[in-house]
Design a protein that fits this description.
The protein has 429 residues and is mostly helical. The chain is 78% helix and 0% strand.
């Protein structure tokens, strides 16, 4: 009814409508950003987590010739000390991501690092190759709680514009861990054997785990999820039916197949003719991981300039050039090839993993877990296939396997470009 018919004062109504409107306050994004509170601590904490993850996960990779020598094992058998760890991580990363939805990212990451570092202190006492492989599998399963939880934590706690840079820093920590672990183990093993070398990595991981827990800010935007299998299965099904996510998972797996194969076998190649390098020098070759630190941390600028697919094409081309250069019998060219392979891999990995976090709007931990699962399946497959190819055809066999994987990366990226073009055409019609 009109106001007049109820006896209400029209003057009051007019007065209330003439009040000046109060301007709405701007919404403040409380998530972390470069230069803001907590961002530096968070970045350093996850950098250390990345260091510990890769140092532990690949602690035996540079030592495979020594492991083969002690246990009388072929390269393909000794490579299982790497494949078992990465394979177990791939198998357990999805269940561990579900636990992080229920109990929190920081809690799961802390527990994962603590268990993996503790097992790392037991690895040096393995009495047989079978026991060593079993311990490495347990270590990989424990580490499964870290990669997916870390990227989900970043997606929730860091502003979107800073996400690629933040994930790039985490990936850079991976590269530093992979590099330092291999360099340290190489020189320690040359003096005191492979057992002392992996013991040092275990102690390093304990220190990283303690610092990580003390530094990482408590999450402010985490919302508890469900542990019900039906809910988890529905979330996973949603991600797997997303064509873009499927392509990103394939790219991560294929890039890691190249990387895992090359770095599992390179120690055998450099200790044999025509190079005949000592173990300490072979370990120092992994200093080229520093290139990966740079390429991963600059992935954000690369995507801003070339776009995601352009950055992936560049990463694939760089990796291909490195594989071809590594066929040379000149040590300098082999090292240059490793530099290019490392730069291409870490750039491609940073671009693909950040795109997963950006694409998934719900169930980010599961989306990241599926990427990490594919990524470490690629690592496990690359370690095994690279060793088998090396046994069958020497270094050229390993390079051939790597080139096929890079061809897969390019093919999947072309498919993505065509799909994007089709969407644009349909939108314009």
């Amino acid at each position: 009814m009109p106001a007049a018919s109820t006896g209400a004062s029209t003057t009051v109504a007019a007065a209330s409508s003439s009040r000046p409107s109060v301007p709405s306050l701007p919404v403040v994004d409380s998530r972390m950003a470069p230069g803001g509170p907590g961002y530096r601590r968070m970045s350093f904490a996850l950098f250390l987590a990345g260091v510990a993850t890769f140092a532990l996960l690949y602690s035996t990779q540079a030592l495979l010739p020594l492991v083969s020598g002690e246990f009388g094992a072929a390269a393909s058998d000794a490579s299982w000390t790497v494949s078992a760890a990465t394979g177990a991580l791939a198998l357990f990363v999805l269940p561990m991501s579900a636990l992080s939805e229920r109990f929190g990212r920081r809690t799961v990451m802390t527990a994962s690092l603590a268990v993996a570092a503790t097992v790392g202190l037991l690895v040096p006492f393995a009495p047989s190759l079978g026991t060593l492989i079993a311990l490495r599998a347990v270590q990989g399963a424990a580490l499964a709680g870290l990669p997916a939880s870390a990227t989900a934590y970043l997606a929730e706690e860091v502003r979107p514009k800073a996400l690629i840079t933040a994930i790039g820093l985490f990936v850079a920590g991976n590269s530093v861990g992979g590099m330092s672990g291999r360099v340290i183990t190489g020189w320690v093993a040359q003096e005191w054997g492979w057992r002392a070398a992996v013991a040092v990595i275990g102690v390093l991981a304990v220190g990283c785990a303690v610092a990580f827990r003390l530094l990482l800010p408590a999450p402010r935007h985490f919302r508890t999820g469900s542990l019900r299998p039906r809910v988890l299965a529905r979330t996973v099904r949603t991600h797997l039916t997303n064509p873009l996510l499927r392509r990103l998972y394939a790219i991560g797996a294929l890039f890691m197949t190249v990387f895992g194969g090359v770095y599992t076998v390179i120690g055998y190649r450099l200790t044999e003719a025509p190079f005949g390098l000592p173990q300490g020098i072979v370990g120092s070759v992994f200093l080229v991981y520093l290139v990966g630190t740079v390429s991963a941390s600059t992935a954000g600028r690369l995507v801003a300039r070339l776009g995601r697919r352009g950055a992936l094409y560049l990463a694939g081309g760089t990796t291909t050039a490195g594989l071809l250069l590594s066929l040379s019998d000149t040590l300098a060219l082999v090292l240059l090839g490793l530099v290019l392979i490392t730069a291409g891999f870490f750039a491609g990995h940073a671009v693909a993993s950040s795109a997963v976090s950006h694409t998934a709007k719900e169930g980010r931990a599961q989306a990241s877990a599926l990427y990490q699962s594919a990524y470490y399946i690629g690592s496990s497959a690359g370690s095994t296939l690279g060793a088998v190819a090396f046994h069958a055809g020497g270094w050229s066999g390993t390079v051939g396997m790597g080139l096929l994987a890079v061809l897969g990366v390019v093919t999947v990226t072309v498919m993505g470009s065509r799909a994007a073009r089709s969407v644009r055409v349909a939108a314009a019609a």
